[in-house]
């Protein structure tokens, strides 16, 4: 069976992942990013229609109803930036948001929405695959996981596919406010340990709550460190 490692496009991005103590930290991280400006830029049906500049891109993806829009709005401190809906599966395009005129936050359609037609879901899967595999500006994929749930097959298959494709990524556990802090940490650790059957090196992860803004500084600090290393 294949053994996966965490891919990175930046040799000098250093991170410390401590499963035993169940937290993630960045080395040399002194100051968190401040988002002064966040604006919607473009919705694209295919990767070739995406913005043509070379700014780094950070993509967010997960199952439908995982809380992706709420997380994006929380990170950008703007409740109206990404459209939230009580009906899952509404994101159907590749949505770019320009942050501080320096980098893009990319909102990808959710995978595995059962109520879509097979044809529509195939089109979306092709859109997601095309973007992730062909977009050279893509620096990191944030895979969102509902922390309340036991490991789901569709999430695991997507994560393993990223590993096989050598795509840099991190896991973002959402909705931690729905659990107590101890239970949230236990669930996250159980999820991460389940990867050890085929993963030699575990990806970094973050525990978040859009309601309480938990994990905001850590995710933005992670992005900021990568951007600095890219510039350096």
Features:
232 residues; alpha/beta; two-stranded antiparallel ribbon; 9 strands
Structure description:
With 232 residues, this protein is α/β, with parallel strands linked by helices. Helices cover 29% and strands 22% of the residues. The protein has five helices and nine strands. A seven-stranded mixed sheet has the order 3-5-6-4-7-8-9, sandwiched between helices. A two-stranded antiparallel sheet has the order 1-2. β1 and β2 form a beta hairpin. The longest helix is centred in the middle third of the chain and has 17 residues. About 10% of the residues have low confidence.
State the helicity in percent bands: 25-40%
Mean pLDDT: 84
Global geometry: globular
Number of beta strands? 9
The secondary-structure class comes to alpha/beta
How far is the first residue's CA from the last residue's CA? 38 Å
Order of helices and strands: EEEEHEEHEHEHEH
Low-confidence stretches: 8-30
Order of strands across the main sheet: 3-5-6-4-7-8-9
Secondary structure blueprint with pairings:
Blueprint: E1 15-18, E2 23-26, E3 38-44, E4 57-62, H1 68-76, E5 94-99, E6 103-107, H2 118-134, E7 138-146, H3 153-164, E8 169-174, H4 181-194, E9 205-207, H5 216-231
Parallel strand pairs: 4-6, 4-7, 7-8, 8-9
Antiparallel strand pairs: 1-2, 3-5, 5-6
